[in-house]
Amino acid sequence: MATMTVIEAVRSTLDEEMARDDRIFLLGEDVEAGGVFRATDGLHAKYGERVIDSPLAESSIIGISIGAAHYGLRPVAEIQFADFIHSGFDQLCSEASRWSYRTNGDSFLPMVVRAPWGGGVHGGQHHSQSIEAYYSHMPGIKVVAPAFPADFRSLLKASILDPNPVLFLEHKRIYRLIKQDVDNAPAETQLSRARITRPGADLTIIAYGFMLHESLSAAETLAGEGIDCMVVDLLTLNPLDTETILESAKATGKVLVVHEDTLTGGLGGEISAIIAEHAFEYLDAPIRRIAGPDVPAMPYHHAMEEFFMPNREKIAAAARDLAAY
Amino acid sequence: MATMTVIEAVRSTLDEEMARDDRIFLLGEDVEAGGVFRATDGLHAKYGERVIDSPLAESSIIGISIGAAHYGLRPVAEIQFADFIHSGFDQLCSEASRWSYRTNGDSFLPMVVRAPWGGGVHGGQHHSQSIEAYYSHMPGIKVVAPAFPADFRSLLKASILDPNPVLFLEHKRIYRLIKQDVDNAPAETQLSRARITRPGADLTIIAYGFMLHESLSAAETLAGEGIDCMVVDLLTLNPLDTETILESAKATGKVLVVHEDTLTGGLGGEISAIIAEHAFEYLDAPIRRIAGPDVPAMPYHHAMEEFFMPNREKIAAAARDLAAY
Amino acid sequence: MAATRTPKTRSKVTIDDYLLSEHQLEEMYYYMLLARRLNERMLAMNRQGRAPFVIAGAGQEAAQVGAAMALRKGEDYVAPYYRDLGVNLVLGMTAREAMLNLLGKRDDPNGHGKQMPAHWGHRERKVVTQSSVVTTQFLHATGIALAAKLRKDPVVVLTSCGEGSTSKGDFHESLNFAAVHKLPVIFFVENNGYAITESTEKSLPVENVADRARGYGIQSAVVDGMDCVAVYQTVRPAVDQARRGGGPFLIEARCYRLWPHSSDDDDTRYRPKKELDEWIKKDPLTLFRGRVESDGIFPKEDLDEIEQRVAEEVRDAAQWAMMQPDPEPEDALTFVYKELD
Amino acid sequence: MAATRTPKTRSKVTIDDYLLSEHQLEEMYYYMLLARRLNERMLAMNRQGRAPFVIAGAGQEAAQVGAAMALRKGEDYVAPYYRDLGVNLVLGMTAREAMLNLLGKRDDPNGHGKQMPAHWGHRERKVVTQSSVVTTQFLHATGIALAAKLRKDPVVVLTSCGEGSTSKGDFHESLNFAAVHKLPVIFFVENNGYAITESTEKSLPVENVADRARGYGIQSAVVDGMDCVAVYQTVRPAVDQARRGGGPFLIEARCYRLWPHSSDDDDTRYRPKKELDEWIKKDPLTLFRGRVESDGIFPKEDLDEIEQRVAEEVRDAAQWAMMQPDPEPEDALTFVYKELD
Ligand SMILES: Cc1ncc(C[n+]2csc(CCOP(=O)(O)OP(=O)(O)O)c2C)c(N)n1
Ligand SMILES: Cc1ncc(C[n+]2csc(CCOP(=O)(O)OP(=O)(O)O)c2C)c(N)n1
Ligand SMILES: [Mg+2]
Ligand SMILES: [Mg+2]
């Protein structure tokens, strides 16, 4: 059996895909030496010029990937930290997201932009960000944020095969924290499909990334208290799997949406709105959201960082209230 | 009485403020000649070096404004079209929004970034965008989007006086379309205050910018049909006036949120979520949203542009359903 | 250093001095003229309320046609900018397609009615789809050149923009990457003196746009952009050299925006009439025609014949295009994502 | 052209050859030493699990101290980057404050526990608050210089970054604007040979970072960044000239990153041991001490005395800082918006 961490899942998948398709190449800062998280370790030695160190310039990493994908190659770009993708926002929003739309599919961009995201790693304001809400409000871009190694493998493969630009988000906190026997674990192979990871009758918790794990352990705790939580792993954040979201909401009538990103304007608002519009009659309680507070970014000191981060306790507390409603 | 258009309201306010405070200066593309919408007409002649043509580089327009504001001046930057602000996303998100936060208020940025936004002007994909959702998910930034000339005057003044970075959105479609006697019209002088523009008992329509006007005329039509709509003008999009939003939702129990921006991840989701969480027990119907479709950007051809744009008819139709619910 | 190329003063000139075949010279005139006449007709249609928006290349035809003719049609890539009608005509765009594009018709191969006029793109012709956002295409061109190099394909990429657009960060990131990796990309800057209302010195701290190449160790040249032959003679060797692995090249074509920025612009509020009049004398079309005529390359009749052919094509294109189908409203919803077939 | 400045070979040297007072020379040594010893202690605290993250300036102290000493403290602005502990010490930061910053303590005047260590900022000292995002500060510095010029204040701004960071678009937009408006800003690049794992040639297509200035017509210089005196002698005239309205200047200090990128980095996987050993011989501290000693500027005892003073300061600072209050969890919610008083 192959038990591996998230980072091993990413590295091994990149290796396998590059071996399968020689149009795939990697572009990013420090990727030749393996990258700061070692996601590309050994790939330069194995694939040579198909692993390219870029100058320190994110707009160019994305804009050059656009050109290469248009030419017919399969760039897999790495943004060293999701926090540094912002100077590439224009290339993603004004260009990549519209490539197929404005050419009626005549041109398209089979490219992936990998970005380590999320907090709880003493990364401070610029090494902890959640960026998914910005790109989930960008039709034409797909956004993927798995939580388990097996899904990292299957969805990174699917992202590379997808003819559209995919932002593939890898939560830093779980890179080495979460292990899984990837051969015998469920693996979603399609984008835009959420998974009901844990069935439950009393209330529904919807989450993704690191928060999915915190939600699962909160559900564990609550099970001991006789509260039966359903937990949904969104997996793909754009386009959303509205069907599964509504199905899970209707099943329990009580919904708690969890994310680490700041509350206002976060993805939780959209999920809540979808439910409030299309599952209204099934609701037995207000739709609750647990999220980071509305501050510009995660502070550095662990005391403030802990205060910022949602976690199993905060999730369990909110779920208790909801169950009691 | 002084009846003026939106563009006149902006121009006259810039003029008055520059006369009042010599720390205010304008920076942007073509502003010396008056700008492409003539919002700065005559100001270079009057204020000389305080009206500065920038090179064609949006990141620099914002980054330089940050430096000047830090120094103690009051930059009012112009982004020629909101669509072109994206290359300045990094300077706004990573820097401007965090300046006060990371220095505990020791440093702060009294700066305004003006940006003409919105569609319905044959502007196509890159001259029609709504950008408010991105910046309303950026704590530390304030976002203002008035609908009437008097509010443009009072809120532009307030934005210039505010010690925080303010994104001041001016809807292109109403620049010359909407006139008002600004001396005898209600004018909101505080940021983060929404206004109940039209009282109503049957349902609540929440909108801003050009869509506020479409919502008002839809309400007119519906009044003739015996449907009494309350219409709320958000005015400031970040931080939101949650109190007024909840009050207006509770008052009628039926809410329709309207914006021109694309649906998924748009500001409407947040507003709906706030109501679904904090006014749940007052709701008599699902919270509806009318918005642009989930496509990358507004198409050019008028047939497709009309199809994309929400308007009074679409709003009225949705309101009828809601009233009948 | 930027080497300036100016037309040498000539005594008795023969066609050999042009280093171009008679056919090529005829093509040059034809394409420049077609671009100009199309733009004129488009502006007329705008004034008639038939086209909401026109942005033209009047004054830049020599630069555009001369540069495009230096490429291998259908093999080399072009990432153009909105004024480059001339480039697109050389690469195969028909007058009818140009008019479909103006009117945002369903069958416009560039934007299918989804894009504004003059936002080019045609996959088969190797014209990269463009947005309104300036200079982003420099990175796309660099990425295509990187891909071609990785695949060892003998492809050259030419990308263009105006002088004002060289102030964007993407300009720097493109030239830097292309220089580090010695990529086969030609950065072609059409310096027409203005960025909407801003004259060049408001954004350019050096004498020539070409001087910007110095910071990257990239070869550069300044050429008289009103002289189609000179432009061709400058771009062609740069393209050949890039194809041989010689790396990127920055070429500045000195031309002039003879018209307002666009159909929405009133240039009289910022542009001195005298300056405009001076440049009108250097109109690339009159310059070219006068030269080939006086040099006796073509008899007057041949040139008149071209004029008539072009006039007819433009008339036909406009009338034909106006009768073509508009997009359906619901087409606004199509192709958000590419589906795998 | 970039003028290179190397220490002239000297026969019998007196203090006059330094063009610096004894006090200034003593300060130089003191600040360089303090920066190094603080960084060493910080790394030790990191290894002890007392500090989650350390990013240091070892090898760049001469560049930082020499540059900062060329400024008017409290009048001129500095927009530094994360390695610039030396710059901040010269401008008034105490050893204790440096340790508060390392530990993210409540009273750290730079980031109040909200920012990572080495993210500087101090309004009174005219040190501009910085993020982790490289090169954005170049535009802030340019904006401050524009503001100072508009107000006719005799202020100069110095902003710094590493050589790798000069590939960012903001670098281009800053130098371009500063050159067009002839602003009093010094762009100071500390070329330490690496951008994390990437050696300079992976992002720099020209020989010197200073050569990038050519594209903007900006004056530039390359200086031996291991030689504090040479750096001062290069930066000082550039600052004075900028103050007189002479416009921007780009200075490249050639130094070396003697340590791994940060406490998280293992440089052995990409950096040749031999190369490192070569550079260790040029350690700016040993170089400076050896020179002033052999030139007889200071007796050995004085220098030893400084060593002891610094060691004591560092010991005290570390112990004191560890006892200082941490931020309250709820402090995470403060100052999102500035309130008008
Ligand atoms: C990023 C961006 N900012 C602003 C604009 C608005 N705009 C359109 S054309 C133009 C001037 C471009 O000048 P130049 O590069 O010299 O090209 P020209 O129009 O003169 O051919 C501007 C500012 C834009 N299209 N993109
Ligand atoms: C925009 C951005 N991208 C990536 C990073 C991650 N990062 C931090 S330091 C660094 C290398 C910087 O190299 P250089 O500019 O030479 O400075 P040095 O660290 O060598 O002093 C990188 C890539 C960042 N901080 N900002
Ligand atoms: Mg121009
Ligand atoms: Mg470096």
Task: Summarize the amount of helix of chain A as a percent range.
Answer: 25-40%
Report the portion of residues of chain C in β strands: 5-15%
Q: In this structure, how is the largest beta sheet of chain A organized? A: 7 strands, mixed
Task: Tell me the strand order in the biggest sheet of chain A.
Answer: 3-2-4-5-7-6-12
Structural notes for this entry:
The complex is a heterotetramer, with 2 copies of chain A (about 325 residues) and 2 copies of chain C (about 350 residues). With about 325 residues, chain A is of the alpha/beta class. Chain A contains 12 helices and 14 strands. Chain A has helices at about 5-20, 45, 60-70, 90-95, 100, 130-135, 150-160, 210-225, 240-250, 265-280, 300-310, 310-325; strands spanning about 5, 25-30, 50-55, 75-80, 110-115, 140-145, 165-170, 180, 195-200, 205, 230-235, 235-240, 255-260, 290. In chain A, the strands form 3 sheets. A 7-stranded mixed beta sheet of chain A has the order 3-2-4-5-7-6-12, with helices on both faces. A 5-stranded mixed beta sheet of chain A has the order 9-11-10-13-14, sandwiched between helices. Chain C has about 350 residues and is an alpha/beta fold. In chain C, about 40% of the residues lie in helices and about 10% in strands. Chain C has a 6-stranded parallel beta sheet, sandwiched between helices. A two-stranded antiparallel sheet of chain C has the order 5-6. In chain C, strand 5 (about 195) and strand 6 form a beta hairpin. Chain C is globular. The N and C termini of chain C lie far apart (about 50 Å). The interface between C and D is medium-sized, with 24 and 24 residues. One magnesium ion binds near residues 163, 164 and 195 of chain D.
